[in-house]
Design a protein that fits this description.
Length: about 70
């Protein structure tokens, strides 16, 4: 979900990593599912992307999600 939200908002990996003071490699590994994020990291990412932590991990609604009619 993080990758989808990041891309929908026009952030590159490097730009988002810089914005949240995180290394590019750490963010890449997080997006690839190679590491589990700490709650503080999720909060920083959610704040930077203007979403909730629940949306960031796929538990909430997000505008990039399509709904069926």
């Amino acid at each position: 979900m993080l990758t989808r939200i990041r891309e929908a908002q026009g952030y590159s990996l490097r730009r988002l990593a810089d914005k949240v003071a995180m290394s590019y490699v750490a963010l890449y590994r997080l997006e690839q599912g190679e590491t589990d994020p700490r709650l503080g990291t999720l909060r920083k990412l959610a704040r930077a992307l203007n979403v909730t932590v629940a949306e960031l991990i796929g538990e909430g609604k997000h505008p990039t999600k399509r709904t069926r009619r």
